[in-house]
Amino acid sequence: MIEQVNIGPLHFEDYQELLDAMKASYQGWQGGYWSPSAIENLINRFPEGQIVIKAGGVVVGCALSIIVDYKKFTDEHTYKQITGNYTFRTHNPKGDVLYGIEIFIHPDFRGLRLGRRLYDARKDLCENLNLRAIIFGGRLPNYHEYAGELTPKQYIQKVKNKEIYDPVLSFQLSNDFHVKKVLANYMPEDEQSKEFATLLQWFNVYYVSDLKNLFNVKTYVRIGLIQWQMRLYKDLDEMFSQLEYFVDSVSAYKCDFAVFPELFNGPLLAGFNHMSEAEAMRELAKYTPAMKDRFRELAIRYNVNIVTGSVPSLEGDTLKNIGYLCHRNGTVDRYEKIHITPDETKHWGIQGGDSLKVFETDAGRIGILVCYDVEFPELARLLADDGMQILFVPFLTDTQNAYMRVRLCAQARAIENECFVAITGSVGNLPQVENMDIQYSQSAVFTPSDFAFPSNCIKSEATANTEMILIAEVDLSLLHELHSYGSVRNLKDRRTDFYELKLKNKIQQDQ
Question: Which of 170, 188, 403, 446 is the most exposed place for a label (fewest CB within 10 A)?
């Protein structure tokens, strides 16, 4: 019975126990073992990189590593080259990769997940030192049994498919390492592997290439969703008085984003009620340039990024449904509604846009899809492929049925794209505006579905059909962990060898 298991640094006094465990682990090994001078050299050069696990106070496993400047070696190297002919002079504290040179567990202690602890300790070290990745050459100890019938590539694929069990590779794959390539002549004395090795890699998702930028990385993001009451306003100034009240309130709670609904400026249509619906919408579009400037000023003055929902906009004779992302530094980005509903086409003559992009902000990488667009999963997936962390969906729905289409699709987008999704719409009635008589909304923030998130995938939600501000805070670091360690990994597990998704005409520039 094991009384206690401890993991910690390797000390030179542990050498004899280390050697005994190493010999027991490499049964049938034709090569040599680490000498006392080699272990002492490793400890002196990189003490925190040499980790042992003890059971009952005795060494039963270890993980040895160095730091290398990987671009000097690339993916074409041998074990002898990467270790500097076993001198470890290749260790470079200013390098970018933690290179694993040894890991083993005494056979009497296998099946206790001790190897997993060693790999986890390496990953923690990689993250703490802000290194880009863990890389190492992995043995294929069972390959000699299949070398006459399978190439190394075929052997690795069968191990991946669990048609063959390899005590080393099978374990490495289960610990989130992926095979970059096959190395030939990696370790000439390794007869069991026929001198082949797998070059394995684990990415550090927290790696920051420029440490100066660490101070600008924002983990927690606070979102303010404005559930807007449709009420009549005599002019643009009166409407912006109400808008500024909401921006001021959201800013007072130190939100990073203030988000307005789709076509929130609909009440101004009342002034054009004597016109046809299509003509009235074109008149409303004439307010858009002035609104853009006012939103930009509010973003700067109140120090909050504003997603302006959407408004009608004229481009020549073409009427579109567009919105602006007004950054608090004064920059303005533009986005378009791509899919137009039958009513928008029939009553207003709105046409769909053709630009899609992820926006870099000081509070994460965001995407914006207007209402109906969220019901088309391809758009959100394209944004997720480009690194989107938060998806904002300003919408306008009249009935609860219409709202539920938006809501349920938004929840699906959060799960399948491993991102946060925030939706907001308008409430209330506009009896003097044709085709915008009633509105239904319940603003909400949705999450992926895994242990780090709410069990119902709802971070927060507003009271239905009530004018209010919904404030929610999301932790972007949870997304990084989900991408690599989630119970399921929707982004990584796609069969890109079988199908793919891409823009037919890659138009993603600002317009």
Answer: 188
**Mean pLDDT on 253-273:** 92
347: DSSP letter = I
Helix (H, G, I), strand (E, B) or coil at 506: coil
- Please check whether the two domains, 5-211 and 221-485, share a CATH topology: no
Q: Where are the beta strands (DSSP E) in 184-285?
A: 197-203, 220-229, 257-259
* pLDDT over 70 percentage in the chain: 96
User: What's the topology of domain 221-485?
Assistant: Nitrilase/N-carbamoyl-D-aminoacid amidohydrolase (3.60.110)
Q: What is the pLDDT averaged over residues 232-247?
A: 93
Q: Mean pLDDT score of the chain, rounded to an integer?
A: 90
Residues 6+ apart with CB under 8 A from 428: 229, 230, 231, 439, 465, 467
Q: Which residue has the tokens 């004779």?
A: 317
CA 324 from centre of chain: 24
Strand, helix or coil at 406? helix
- Distance, CA of 12 to chain centre: 41
pLDDT tens for each residue of 132-187: 999 998 888 888 888 889 898 899 899 889 999 988 888 888 888 999 888 888 87
Give whole-number Cα distances, 459 to 219, 247, 421, 472, in Å.
16, 22, 10, 7
Residue 112: per-residue pLDDT: 78
Instruction: Identify the three-state secondary structure at position 59.
Output: strand
SS (HEC) of 159-174: HHCCCCCCCCHHHHHH
Q: Which CATH number fits domain 5-211: 3.40.630.30, 3.90.550.60, 3.40.50.300, 3.40.50.720?
A: 3.40.630.30
Q: What does the pLDDT read at residue 240?
A: 95
Give residue-wise pLDDT tens across range 210-220. 654 444 556 89
Report which secondary-structure segment, H or E, holds 376.
Answer: none
Instruction: Name the 3-class secondary structure at 465.
Output: coil
User: DSSP character for 344?
Assistant: I
Categorize the per-residue pLDDT at 486 as very low, low, confident or very high, splitting at 50, 70 and 90: confident
Q: Domain locations in the chain?
A: 5-211, 221-485
Task: Report the Cα 260 to chain-centroid distance in Å.
Answer: 25
The secondary element (H helix, E strand) that includes residue 366 is strand 364-368
Beta strands in 86-219 (DSSP E): 97-105, 133-138, 178-183, 197-203
Active site members: 262, 337, 371
Q: Which stretches of 103-226 are DSSP H helices? A: 114-128, 152-160, 169-174
The pLDDT assigned to 8 comes to: 92
